[in-house]
Design brief:
With 202 residues, the protein is mainly alpha-helical. 74% of the residues lie in helices and 0% in strands. About 10% of the residues have low confidence.
Length: 202
């Protein structure tokens, strides 16, 4: 797998984290570098750790699935991408503003108030958000095992990309509001499906 393909996968996987970061940014009139870095590090770490876990778990089955590796990779990426695209079409009233200090409506789908309250950036708030936005990357890690991708550079690219996009999302949320969240998810879904189709076609 080429570097550009890894980068595009990283961008696609980062869109959930970017969207939640936008939501967190909505709760802040001014985004400080320290808080943006905290969000980026949480999301980047989990987004890198999940593919590694998927890679290690799937490695035991790689020989069995080897004849079908491209099909498996396509299926995994298509499902993840489709999920992101479907999520982008959720009713706006279900995704309006941010939730309470526990996080964002992208995760809990319940908006406590239309007036955003300052988000908490402690571990009890950030770990569930980071985990929820990185679960899909577990399947991508499995596809890396089937395709015999070098895992350390791959998770490095994914983690760093997510870190910077999450930091950018904080600023975007503070500056421009909620309307970009669905667009980010839609774009991320298209990217992952595109990569999956390319792998399927060889």
């Amino acid at each position: 797998m080429r570097l550009i393909e890894l980068f595009l996968i990283a961008v696609g996987l980062s869109m959930d984290a970017f969207a939640v970061a936008v939501c967190l940014g909505l709760t802040m009139a001014v985004v400080h570098l320290k808080k943006a870095l905290i969000v980026g590090l949480y999301f980047g770490f989990f987004q890198a750790a999940m593919p590694l876990a998927g890679y290690l778990l799937a490695g035991n089955f790689a020989d069995i699935i080897d004849p079908y590796d491209n099909i498996v990779a396509f299926a995994l990426l298509a499902v993840i991408g489709g999920k992101l695209i479907l999520s982008s079409f959720k009713k706006e009233e279900e995704r309006n503003a941010c939730c309470t200090e526990s996080g964002c409506d992208l995760v809990c789908n319940v908006c406590g108030t239309k007036q955003p309250t300052p988000a908490s950036f402690g571990p009890l708030s950030m770990i569930p958000l980071a985990f929820a936005t990185s679960v899909d990357a577990l399947a991508v890690g499995a596809s890396f095992a089937f395709l015999e991708v070098s895992i350390l550079p791959a998770i490095g690219i994914i983690g760093v990309t997510t870190l910077f996009l999450s930091m950018a999302g904080m600023s975007v949320g503070s500056a421009f509001g909620a309307k970009l969240r669905s667009k980010a998810e839609f774009a991320g879904g298209l990217i992952l499906i595109f990569i999956g189709v390319r792998l399927l076609l060889g």
